[in-house]
Amino acid sequence: MNSVHYQQEDGHAVRASVTDSVAEVVDSVMRGRAAVRRFLDRPVDRRVVTDILDVARSAPSNSNTQPWRVHALAGQAKDALCAALGDAHANRPEAHTPCYKHFPDVLGERYAARQAAFGAIYYGSLGIDFDDTARRNIQTAQNFKFFGAPVGLIFTIDSSLERGSWIDYGMFLQNIMLAAKARGLDTCPQISFVKYHEIIRQHLSITPYETIVCGMSMGYADPSARINALGLPREPVTAFTSFLGFDG
What we know:
Blueprint: E1 5-9, E2 12-17, H1 21-32, H2 46-56, E3 69-73, H3 75-91, H4 109-125, H5 133-141, E4 151-158, H6 163-182, E5 186-190, H7 197-204, E6 210-219, H8 237-240
Antiparallel strand pairs: 1-2, 3-4, 4-6, 5-6
Helix pairs in contact: 2-6
């Protein structure tokens, strides 16, 4: 395995050669990660899930507060939660309110445009017309089955913590998704679970002092599913970065 070497030029460290190995592997894992919404019926061993969480816990957190708590579900425990969530979504969705808002009431123009583009690609891959509310609702219900994944994860945080700890949590979640991908597994982070936080709280004995952050599906992606190959566009670096002081 080669390493990346640096040399000094005019008192500055300059990258002399991007040789291969580590950077290429890490970049490949990061670029290869994508939300998967159809999984194979193939179990995932508890030891693999433990290994993924073990490496993910190396995520940084302010003052090493480590604000994450994970509820890992499989088998009958997952099926029972899925059944309860599916029933609520099918029969009493209006009775439930998310425990926090993911987006503002009015989404900014640039974000709304990206959201609309995603919806067109997403539902288009399923052959669902965006105006077909009934079929869209059926597809949304797949969230609460963890899209058929053998492992479901529910994440909670101490409700007293502020935005900084949620930033820490995001890095932990990303670590999980990358560690899973590096082991041949795929994931889908899901904000949809926060609507049914009361049901989840009852099933998992979550204390009143915790807030549900999100859920996540984990398993082996179905390679034949078109929905798993959306190829969503990303803005180029120049669109979101200002470089200052680099010239010369």
